[in-house]
Write a structure and sequence with these properties.
Length: 446
């Protein structure tokens, strides 16, 4: 008879060892962990009950604030009604309902949406749709993908290939072949302390013409950019830049993809950055704010011509061999529908627009603090650059981030930049508190 499995000698210890944290220096974290136990509205709470004002909407995602009752109720009800239904060859009503609702919200004829579970999946899905689209219409030589320096498009192989942040790329081999990059739109020399969209830099879109001259348009499938680069420290686009990219893409039959994972759902005071800039991309990726981060969800919106272009061939054959077990997961759809209700009922996109000037004045009041080398803002988000310490890139940024947390404020850190993007439900006095605590943290680490 097979022997019974050996009993474990000890109970499983509840220590910090087993969990491998993403994008975190694990050993340093485990030596001095920062734990979050619960959240409500504008605040996080540590296990010992200390309130921390959320200056970052989690990670640019809890736009409606935390643990909102209607969202919690919707998730609970859906979990009790339908935990899961197969995503391939089956569907459930809430998937269609949500798709119709978000498609109606999306600008222009971005009328169809492919659901996935994260921004990274959305990006890889969008790149694949772009390639497939050109393929089925007989332009299969269009395989090149163009990203941008300092871009962040998640961590899939497609996303890191078109992305432009060196640490996310350098250990992972040759990445996708045939990728090229536009230059970053950021220049401190020309743009420091710009309010909103910088005046300088629109001409950098013309670099796409240079890339087209090098490779020929017939080999280029798509250009992907974040309307405002987020993870690299918040870089709003220069005036006219996105409009010019759109023109050049149109001229050469290149698809334009906006990665709206952080700009979607109200960050700039409009549904999407595409609305704000009045530039309609061919494909648009979303995640985060779509479900207020309660249940993971992402999506790719496509314009009618892209969808129609792929709906050919025999009707009983799969048009796109792509999808996820959890595409349009019932809980995510229920959550997202409740989130859309809140955005609408509370006018949160409008609220974000109304607060953006107050926010701008607040963040720019930090100019002149020790070592602050640039402050950028657009919508309800900002990036503050600080002079780094000699031979220790990111050390000051990290210390400032930790200091802010000790003072009761959550910010994000990218090297020596502090980024902030509060929930759109924020009150003016809470903006004041963010500015006050950020200023104190910056001074403390000077
Ligand atoms: C612009 C952009 N694209 C993609 C992603 C990746 O999203 P996720 O972490 O959900 O995979 C992010 C995440 O911050 C992002 O900011």
């Amino acid at each position: 008879m097979p022997s019974a499995p050996a009993q474990r000698a000890t109970a499983v210890p509840n220590d910090l060892e087993a969990y491998w944290l993403p994008f975190t220096p694990n050993r340093a974290f485990k030596a001095a962990p920062r734990l979050i136990a619960r959240a409500k509205d504008m605040h996080y709470y540590t296990p010992d009950g200390r309130a921390v004002l959320d200056g970052t909407a989690g990670m640019w995602c809890t736009n409606a604030g935390h643990n909102r009752d209607p969202i919690v109720a919707a998730i609970q009800a859906e979990a009790a009604a339908l935990d899961y239904a197969p995503a391939f060859q089956f569907a459930h009503p809430k998937a269609f309902e949500l798709a119709s609702r978000v498609a109606a919200l999306a600008p222009g004829d971005l009328d169809h949406v492919f659901f996935c579970n994260s921004g990274s999946e959305a990006v890889d899905t969008a790149l694949k749709i772009a390639l497939a689209y050109h393929n089925v219409r007989g332009e299969g030589a269009r395989t090149r993908l163009i990203g941008r320096e300092r871009g962040y498009h998640g961590v899939g192989f497609g996303g890191i290939s078109v992305g432009g942040m060196v640490n996310n790329r350098k250990l992972f081999g040759a990445l996708l072949a045939g990728v090229d990059h536009l230059p970053t739109t950021y220049s401190r020399e020309h743009q420091a302390f710009s309010k909103g969209e910088p005046d300088w830099g629109g001409h950098l879109a013309d670099e796409l013409e240079r890339i087209v001259t090098l490779h020929d348009a017939s080999t280029i499938a798509a250009v992907i950019v974040e309307p405002c680069a987020g993870s690299t420290g918040y870089l709003p686009p220069p005036k006219g830049y996105l409009q010019r990219l759109r023109q050049i893409c149109d001229k050469h039959g290149i698809l334009l993809i906006f990665d709206e994972v952080i700009t979607g759902f109200g960050r700039l005071g409009t549904g999407f950055a595409a609305d704000f800039f009045n530039v309609i991309p061919d494909l648009m990726t979303v995640a985060k704010g779509i479900s207020n981060a309660t249940v993971p969800m992402g999506g790719v919106f496509v314009r009618k011509h892209i969808y129609d272009g792929l709906m050919n061939g025999p009707e009983n054959v799969v048009e796109l061999f792509h999808g996820y077990t959890y595409s349009a997961h019932p809980l995510a759809c229920a959550a997202a529908s409740a989130v859309l209700d809140i955005y609408k009922d509370e006018g949160l996109f409008q609220r974000s627009a109304e607060l953006s000037k107050y926010w701008e004045d607040g963040v720019h009041s930090l100019k002149g603090l020790p070592g602050v080398t640039d402050i950028r803002n657009l919508g309800l988000a900002a990036g503050i650059d600080m002079e780094g310490r000699k031979d220790a890139i990111g050390a000051r940024g990290f210390d400032t981030f930790v200091k802010a947390f000790e003072l009761g404020l959550m910010v994000r850190q990218a090297a020596d930049t502090i980024a902030m993007s509060p929930p759109l439900v924020i009150e003016r006095n809470q903006i004041d508190e963010i500015i006050d605590l950020t200023g104190k943290a910056i001074k403390a680490t000077a």
